[in-house]
Specification:
Length: 131
Amino acid sequence: MGSMRSEHPLNIARLLVERGYEAYVDWHATGPESDDNWKAHALALGQDFNEALRQPHARQVYALDKAWLDWSDIGVIVMPCGKSAWAEMGFLRGQHKLVYALTEPNPERWDIMLQFANDWTSDIDELMQWF
């Protein structure tokens, strides 16, 4: 879980795969502007946000992402990230699954609610030790 505009989640996934874990990051393949492109497409069709969320494309993407969240045992939220990553962390924690956070060493914005994660660090080596 992380920003589509960052390669950092993909790098973390590679480290996990090297250690023998399965990591789902195919969502990253859609590119950093996929949400912007979806919005532009929906607006071109005359749809507002609420209508666009009800369209088959949005429902299919959601179903795929949720299926992977259901499948996973552990989540890693990579900061900085957007609203979707926070929602996914909340979903995983609500399912009593482990969620670890990789924070920025000195983030511009601080957020107390990161404590919903089971643990957090800005050190990639420490994160990998938790696995």
